[in-house]
Amino acid sequence: MRELGGDRLRAHAAEALTRARRRSTALTDAVDDEDLVRQHSKLMSPLVWDLAHIGSQEELWLVRDVGGREPLRPDIDDLYDAFRHPRADRPSLPLLGPSEARAYVAQVRDKALDVLAREPMEGRRLTEAAFAFGMITQHEQQHDETMLATHQLRQGEAVLHAPPAPSRRAGALPAEVFVPAGPFVMGTSVEPWALDNERPAHEVHVDAFHLDTTPVTNGAYLEFLESGGYDERRWWSEAGWEYRTAHDITAPRFWYRESGGWWRIRFGVREPVPADEPVVHVSFYEAQAYAAWAGKRLPTEAEWEKAARFDPATGQSRRYPWGNEEPTAEHANLGQRHLGPAAVGAYPAGASALGVHQLIGDVWEWTSTDFHGYPGFAAFPYREYSEVFFGPEYKVLRGGSFGTDPSAIRGTFRNWDYPIRRQIFSGFRCARDAQVRG
Ligand code: AVJ
Ligand code: FE
C-alpha cells in the first residue's frame, strides 16, 4: 500500500473495491426484499439505504470529483446524504427499491473502475487518487460493519454463517501490562489511507500506567453484574446512572437470563454467554461502571495508542501492534471471518511490543477520551467527515472489531460514538495509574 506506482495502485484499488463489494453483496443478498427495506431498529437505516448510500458516495467522490464525469443520478444525492436525514427518518424517504439500488451501485462501480483505469496517476495526482480510492473503500467497509450490526438487530432465523472464532488460549497471560512513562508519536502523517482525524503525527507524553492485557471478558463482566453492579449507584457516573435508570439497562445488549444462566442471541442464534470471550455490546457508561467496580478506569485514547504502537526497543510507533505488516488471520480477528470475538489469548502473534493482546480486532474498545482533532488538524476532504463531530458528546473507540475490514483499521484509526450506544460491536479494557514513588 505504501508508495505504489500507478499500475500497482490501480490493481490494489480495484482489488480492494471488489472485496468490499463482495461483502456488501453478501450482506444484502442474505435477506429477502422485505427485510432489505425494513427498519430493524430506529438506530439503524434499512439495509437498502446503506447499499445505495455506498453507491452515492462513490459516485460523488470517485466518479464526479476524481473522474470529473457527468453525474449519474443527481436527483438522489439528497436522499443518501446522511446529514439531511437522520437514520430514524430514512424508511419514509422515496428510496430506491432493492433492484434499483443494486443496479445503481453496479453502474457507479463500472464508472469508478473506468476512472481508475484512465486517470493519469503520477506525482500529486497519484497521492490524491490513492487516497480517494482508499477513502471510498473504507467507507464501503464501514457501512458493511454497520450493516452487520443491523443484521444483529434483525429478528428471525439466522441467515449469516461463519466458522466459530478461535478459542485457543496462549497459556496464562499476565492480567496487566506496565507501560513506562515517556513520549511516543501518536497519529500519522504518512499512512496513505489515514483519514483526516488520524493526522498529523505528533509527540505526546504519557505517564506510566497499567493496561489490561486483554479486553474484559464476559466472565469478568458477569461478576460485576452478579454482584449487583447495575444496581449500585456508586459505580456509575451521573450521566451513566441516568441512562441506566431511564432505559432500565441491566445487562449487555442481546443478553437474557434463562434457567439460572445467562444467554445471548447472536445473529439469530441463541447460546450460553461464553466466559472467555470479550464482552461486546456494552455502552461507554457500562464500561465506565465496570472499571470503577474493578478499582480501575478506562484508558485514555493516547494510552491505548501507546500500548498498541510504541516499541520501546526503537522508540518508534508501529503501524499495527505486531509491526508494520498488514493484518493476516494470525494477527487479529477482523474482516467478518467469524461472527463474534475470539477467546482472549487467541492471537499471540498479534500482541504489541509491550505485550498487550487483541488491541486490533474482536471488539471496539471504549476510551475515556472525547473526540477532538489533533494539534494541526485540517479537515479533509470535507468538514462533515470528522470535524462536525468534535466535542464532548462523542467518545473515541479504538482497534476495530470482528466486523471491521483490515482495510479500515490500523493503530492510528479512530472511531467515535455516543456513550449510550451499544448496538455497535463495542467492548473495552481497563487501565490504572502506576504508583507514583515519592
Ligand atoms: C467512523 C463509523 C463513526 O459510520 O458514522 C460512514 C463512518 N462516515 N459514512 C459512521 C462513516 C460516513 C462513521 N464512523
Ligand atoms: Fe456513509
UniProtKB/TrEMBL annotation:
Obligatory cofactor(s): Fe(2+)
Domain called Sulfatase-modifying factor enzyme-like: residue spans: 174-432
A Pfam family per the record: FGE-sulfatase
Domain DinB-like intervals: 16-147
Catalysed reactions, as listed in the record: gamma-L-glutamyl-L-cysteine + hercynine + O2 = gamma-L-glutamyl-hercynylcysteine S-oxide + H2O
Residues annotated for gamma-L-glutamyl-L-cysteine binding in this entry: 87-90, 417, 421
Gene: egtB
Enzyme class: oxidoreductase
Chain sites annotated for binding Fe cation: 53, 139, 143
Transmembrane intervals: none
Entry keyword set: Iron, Metal-binding, Monooxygenase, Oxidoreductase
Organism superkingdom: Bacteria
Assigned EC number: 1.14.99.50
Name the record gives this protein: Hercynine oxygenase
Record's function text: Catalyzes the oxidative sulfurization of hercynine (N-alpha,N-alpha,N-alpha-trimethyl-L-histidine) into hercynyl-gamma-L-glutamyl-L-cysteine sulfoxide, a step in the biosynthesis pathway of ergothioneine.
Record pathway: Amino-acid biosynthesis; ergothioneine biosynthesis
UniProt organism field: Amycolatopsis rhizosphaerae
Family, per entry: Belongs to the EgtB family.
Example of a GO MF term: gamma-glutamyl hercynylcysteine sulfoxide synthase activity
